[in-house]
Amino acid sequence: MKIFTKRSLFLCFVLFVNCIIACKKPDPNIVVKGEAKVKFINATLTEANQDIYVDGQKNSTTAIAFTESTDYLKIVSGSRSVKFMGSANLPTESVFNFTPSLTYSTFLVGNRTGAREIITFEDNLSNTEAGKAKIKLINLTPFFLTGINVSVQAGTQFVNGLLYKEASTYFQVDAGMSLRYNVVGSGSIKTIDGTLLEAGKIYTIWFSGSTATALEAHIITDN
To answer: Are the C-beta atoms of residues 142 and 179 closer than 8 Å to each other?
Structure first.
């Protein structure tokens, strides 16, 4: 006959508890609660001023015109319905999943036929290197199948053929350094003045325009 000591019974109990914990699967229906920060931008050239609604509640204090943006707004994280509503067209609405503690830039855009949609990009507001500005570039004009090139003033290209609705990675550039950009294959070169890029700042730079000569860069300061 086997005799179980208190020590052996205790070990059996520990093994039993560990087995239950190891076998328990995470509940996929559990939603992590918290807040995300979202900035909303009107990037539709012909669109009327837009109010922003999240889950049916108006979040903007004033309607934003083309190129205008809100500040970062705190919203409950998780699956949220985002709607841009102007006076001229039917509302444009989409659903996004926002992660707690992250920041986003959310744009209203339109394609060549005028069909509108909402797209969102995650922002990175971590610190920049000393003496540097941190930039992300987004092509929001649907008119150039070849995309957009971006280079530093000296001529070193660091973005090649950025297509519609694409965002680049973040780049650290010397503060005060001018940037050049153009439609791929076009000789119309535009410049972002280096005085607009300050050390320690983080920028989202997005592009609009229906022709190479009308291509324009819009700068949003994120911090």
So the answer is: no
